[in-house]
Q: What sequence folds into this?
């Protein structure tokens, strides 16, 4: 069952089409990742979902009904560029953000104290925001995002700019919210995070959705004939080998695409025969990064294309 | 458009502004400043030098005798403001005398020397020697008495009755009467003029201050990236409405505090103003003033919020505020220039002109009786101005608030109006 359906969302700014007829479906109780490079159209998509931008075309549908202003009260949104009123006290900030979601001080009072204690901010509740460290300000921002007990949590590049402690904290919150049956949608350009956290994804490139669906299914589909390899030595001898379609270096791992699925054993033998120290040999596995590059092309290739177009 | 979200924004804006240092200082400082200025003036007035020594030197003994008789009986001598001594000298003797008295004049031990040549009987030209040769208050004080003496002397041998003489030496005396439609004609002092100045200054200052505060707060929201978090709960129109209403209420509270002394003086008899400062306005002026001010605030704060949304930082904004500032500064100067002659056509036009009306009308209606339909018309014009401005300002605000990067050109801002947001 889908909780949110995004249909044909389109947004242009002058001559630039930021989002081009994007459609995807967010299932109930899932963690949904919108993946793409910087400038691919992720933020614009999320902003349209939040009603911050009016789409030129298309709708966001919640359980069969087009969303309106009231949807916003059911969402906790954490934009990529986030901020707080510097001169406001921590507790007043939390109350204010709850209030504009339609929750009174009384309703959230207990929960606010709970969260403040859990995040070790209870002693600072009467401090002004400007007196807090950056890390603590981020914590206040998380609490403000979830304090009104939203059904949906939409996070735009949630991990950018977070310190390691807060990164883990946010991950915990996301998983906790999932257990409570809430829908979490986040955008990221960090494929690792998406791969670890998401159930479903949509890949966006140049404003277009290039891939969408359950992460498991996508990986299964793209991982055939694929070997993920970690090794020590020189594998340049594999270039031009008839069983190999292509080799991609991803730094830590190397992705090898074979011409046929039953060539894996042959490849392993080749590596061993050539004295390569194989540390990890993962047949039928593929990283999201590899899929993305296969579909969208690598950064350099795109750059070349753009230069050629100019 | 008016809901719990707008209320929450209004509440926050009110709290933030009412308890800000800038607001508290300004709100208390301005009336304080007004009192200090009035006090200084009163002090200057009361501390005017007493017993100013003036030598009156005439060219003929006949003149000396006549002046001695008249001036020694004048009020100024009786009140002790001036001390006169009289002598008779010709031009050459005067020169020597002046040389001798030079040091005393420079030390201001001697206030001045007035020389009345015999030719004064023909052309009334006198000479005045002092450290500063332009002493307006002295000229004003002595103009009448000296003229009287000269006239008396001149007509002395001519056969004229005392009545004819009295008329001849009578100066023109203006008594100000304010003519208005409703009430009868009545005498009034400078009070209303002072009040008109006060209203003009307060309106201008409060709108400027609250407008600037709102602009700063929009820039802060934009610069600190709070705005996107807020916009995920509140629509841009709700946010702007809340901000403008919150700021306007703050302004209204400020103005009520500023006007309270005026209302107090009007409604009670505890405070006795000196006769020159008596003013006569009725409650409608105050009520109109507050309503007019509120609409003015809504309009100008809307514009300032729009400016705040266009710019990323206070530096860019301060250069960009000029067009909006002009909408306040020009009417401000029209209002000031109107004080000399409130019936100037430009005053009438300005008091009914969009934007200008807000600052000019209260001063105008304090000074002259304004037909009631003018007030209604001005009110309608102001409301229409606001109604016309709000969607434009709102649109620019909505587009601008999420923009960052380089300072946009005005031509780009105009293009924003066509965007679908």
A:
């Amino acid at each position: 069952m889908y909780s949110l359906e995004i249909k044909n969302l389109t947004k242009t700014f002058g001559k630039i089409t930021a989002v081009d007829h994007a459609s995807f479906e967010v299932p109930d109780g899932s963690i949904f990742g919108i993946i793409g490079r910087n400038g691919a159209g992720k933020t614009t998509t999320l902003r349209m979902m939040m009603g911050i931008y009016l789409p030129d075309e298309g709708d966001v549908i919640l359980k069969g009904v087009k969303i309106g202003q009231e949807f916003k009260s059911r969402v906790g949104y954490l934009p990529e560029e986030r901020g707080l009123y510097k001169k406001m006290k921590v507790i007043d900030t939390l109350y204010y953000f709850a209030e504009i979601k339609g929750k009174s001080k009384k309703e959230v009072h207990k929960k606010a104290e709970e969260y403040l204690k859990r995040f070790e901010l209870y002693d600072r509740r009467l401090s002004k925001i400007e007196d807090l460290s950056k890390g603590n300000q981020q914590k206040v921002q998380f609490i403000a995002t979830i304090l009104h007990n939203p059904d949906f949590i939409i996070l735009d590049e949630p991990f950018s700019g977070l310190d390691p402690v807060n990164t883990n904290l946010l991950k915990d919150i996301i998983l906790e919210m999932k257990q409570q049956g809430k829908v979490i949608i986040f955008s990221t350009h960090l494929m690792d995070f998406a791969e670890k956290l998401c159930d479903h994804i949509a890949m966006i490139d140049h404003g277009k959705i290039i891939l969408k669906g359950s992460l498991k299914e996508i990986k299964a589909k793209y991982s055939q004939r694929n070997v993920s390899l970690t090794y020590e030595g020189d594998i340049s001898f594999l270039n031009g080998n008839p069983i190999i379609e292509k080799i991609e270096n991803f730094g830590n791992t190397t992705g090898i695409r074979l011409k046929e699925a039953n060539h894996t054993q042959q490849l392993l033998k080749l590596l061993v025969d050539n004295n390569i120290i194989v540390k990890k040999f993962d047949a039928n596995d593929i990283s999201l990064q590899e899929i993305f590059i296969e579909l969208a092309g690598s950064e350099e290739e795109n750059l070349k294309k753009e230069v050629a177009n100019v | 458009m008016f809901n719990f979200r707008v209320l929450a924004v209004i509440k926050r804006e009110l709290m933030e502004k009412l308890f800000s240092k800038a607001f508290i200082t300004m709100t208390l400082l301005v009336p304080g400043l007004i009192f200090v200025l009035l006090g200084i003036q009163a002090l200057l007035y009361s501390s005017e030098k007493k017993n100013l020594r003036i030598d009156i030197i005439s060219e003929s003994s006949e003149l000396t005798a006549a002046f001695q008789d008249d001036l020694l009986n004048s009020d100024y001598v009786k009140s002790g403001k001036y001390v006169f001594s009289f002598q008779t000298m010709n031009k050459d003797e005067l020169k020597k005398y002046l040389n001798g008295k030079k040091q005393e004049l420079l030390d201001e031990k001697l206030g001045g020397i007035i020389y009345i040549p015999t030719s004064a009987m023909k052309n009334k030209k006198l000479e005045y020697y002092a450290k500063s040769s332009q002493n307006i208050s002295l000229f004003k004080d002595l103009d009448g008495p000296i003229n009287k003496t000269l006239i008396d002397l001149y007509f002395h041998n001519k056969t004229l009755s005392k009545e004819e003489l009295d008329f001849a030496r009578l100066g023109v005396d203006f008594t100000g009467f304010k003519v208005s439609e409703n009430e009868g004609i009545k005498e009034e002092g400078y009070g209303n003029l002072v009040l008109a100045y006060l209203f003009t200054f307060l309106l201008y200052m409060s709108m400027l201050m609250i407008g600037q505060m709102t602009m700063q707060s929009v820039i802060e929201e934009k610069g600190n990236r709070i705005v996107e978090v807020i916009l995920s709960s509140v629509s841009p129109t709700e946010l702007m409405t809340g901000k403008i209403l919150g700021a306007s209420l703050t302004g209204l509270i400020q103005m009520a505090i500023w006007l309270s002394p005026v209302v107090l003086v009007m409604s009670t008899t505890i405070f006795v103003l000196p006769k020159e400062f008596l003013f006569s306005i009725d409650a409608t002026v105050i009520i109109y003033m507050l309503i007019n001010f509120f609409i003015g605030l809504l309009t100008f704060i809307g514009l300032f919020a729009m400016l705040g949304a266009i710019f990323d930082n206070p530096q860019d904004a301060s250069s960009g505020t000029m067009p909006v500032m002009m909408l306040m500064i020009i009417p401000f100067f029209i209002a000031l220039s109107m004080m000399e002659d409130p019936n100037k056509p430009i005053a009438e036009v300005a008091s009914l002109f969009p934007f200008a009306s807000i600052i000019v009308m209260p001063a105008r209606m304090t000074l002259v009786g304004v037909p009631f339909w003018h007030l209604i018309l001005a009110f309608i014009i102001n409301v229409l101005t606001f109604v016309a401005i709000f969607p434009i300002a709102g649109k620019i605000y909505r587009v601008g608030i999420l923009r960052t990067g380089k300072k946009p050109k005005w031509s780009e801002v105009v293009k924003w109006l066509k965007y679908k947001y």
